[in-house]
Amino acid sequence: MNKLLIVGTVAFDAIETPFGKTDKILGGAGTYIGLAASNFDVKSAIVSVVGEDFPQEYLDLLTDRNIDISGIEVVKGGKTFFWSGKYHNDLNSRDTLDTQLNVLADFKPVVPTDFKDADVVMLGNLHPLVQSSVLDQMEVKPKLVVLDTMNFWMDCALPELMDIIKRVDVITINDEEARQLSGEYSLVNAAAKIHAMGPKFVVIKKGEHGALAFEGENVFFAPALPLKEVFDPTGAGDTFAGGLSGFIAQSENASFENLKNAIIYGSNLASFCVEKFGTERMLNLSDAEVNARLQQFKSLTQFDIELNK
Amino acid sequence: MNKLLIVGTVAFDAIETPFGKTDKILGGAGTYIGLAASNFDVKSAIVSVVGEDFPQEYLDLLTDRNIDISGIEVVKGGKTFFWSGKYHNDLNSRDTLDTQLNVLADFKPVVPTDFKDADVVMLGNLHPLVQSSVLDQMEVKPKLVVLDTMNFWMDCALPELMDIIKRVDVITINDEEARQLSGEYSLVNAAAKIHAMGPKFVVIKKGEHGALAFEGENVFFAPALPLKEVFDPTGAGDTFAGGLSGFIAQSENASFENLKNAIIYGSNLASFCVEKFGTERMLNLSDAEVNARLQQFKSLTQFDIELNK
Asked: From the CA of A161, how many Å to the nearest CA of chain B?
């Protein structure tokens, strides 16, 4: 079975949306990526850090899904990373109410020995130096490295970000971040400039407007599934990345044609993620539901046009 | 050959974009719809009104493309409808600088006798009473009636708008307008409410984010082609509607499956429209270019995923 190594936060979130609010619940990019990837036949591990306050039951939720947590350091006397945010009425934007780095401030990732030859490495959104440190520890060159990042690192750690971008095969980034990183408004031009920074594949996430994937002149577009109700967008981008990297790890095929499938799979899983608060929906998701929704993605996008003349 | 009846403005536009500005040039919804529809093997006619100031060469451009202009009234001593607008840097929003209704203020559409049995009627964005008057003149029930409208009529003529919406098969409307008309934020819920107002098919235009089509529970999504550069968005929505209605008129098939193809065709033509100022690109467009871009739409959206387990 192929191995997928994930680095990302395992954390507490407190979320407020127009539909309600939560206390501290399980969150973090590493968590969402891991849960998404657990839908595939891959051997996955999360590298992360939590405090002594982190409930054993949350760790058990991960091990129950065959996710190796030996790379999740538990800091004695430490407190777990905490993020709190409030979404606006349109759910497309949010205010951060509180960020407590806690144990994340001094996080030194340690890759489990058994995953130093992972086939796919998924670098969740974290400081670029943490992402680089994970790659540095690999003993076998991974078949595919996927990087997620955000505007915060462009503002605060651009040189380090550019260093890690050089080393990855796939970058996932949202539309505004792609514009910021490239200085180009057109996403076609932005992708071309980001290609030149290193990544062979550039995946631009547009939230409810779907995702674009570029490989040079080749372009693919995956819509977001139109939903009656989006309940909580938290973790959708990480779930997308987890579905994408999990699918590629399972299928052992890192071609652009297969990336298209991976993106549809990521979009599919993300469409479930937003249906409930936090990780709730991802923790209660059946293969039958996923497969039924894949059919919806097919009928949503497939057509059979004939040339006109 | 099937007949397509178009009602819409034939007008002057003056456009300013970040890339330059134009003097008074040929514009109007009817013009763009007609030019788009002229890419199909259909017999089409435009019902509209212009002033005596309207150049014969502009009318000739339409007749050269086999568009029947006997329904375009030329008002002696009258001045043609004029719109002037300036696009913002992102090209997604614009300010109207000037609107001179002129002859449009008293427009009484007259459907040419030969088109009172048109197979498809495309009601371009105009006062709902003008749109209704065109339908009232039909002697044979059209196989398909397509309505385009905008927020302006929701604000100023809502009862009349609701009356015409009841009578059409397809409504094309942008996302913000769909939300305004339905009072629903989710486009899925908005489409359901608009269905209940009458139209069997609801097409929601999202500009650079593509278009959604609904028929009850069935949904289809067509992306906009990602472009290096959008030069002038004027007329893109009308070109989309013209491509859609022209394709259906030609293919004599008003099923949802064929509407999908029609929407791809409309998106395809719209992707050319925005490449130059005004109608310039639509007036210089070859079948080979259109067909090549249809292939791009296929590779942009088609995938061949297998179910996971």
From this structure: 26
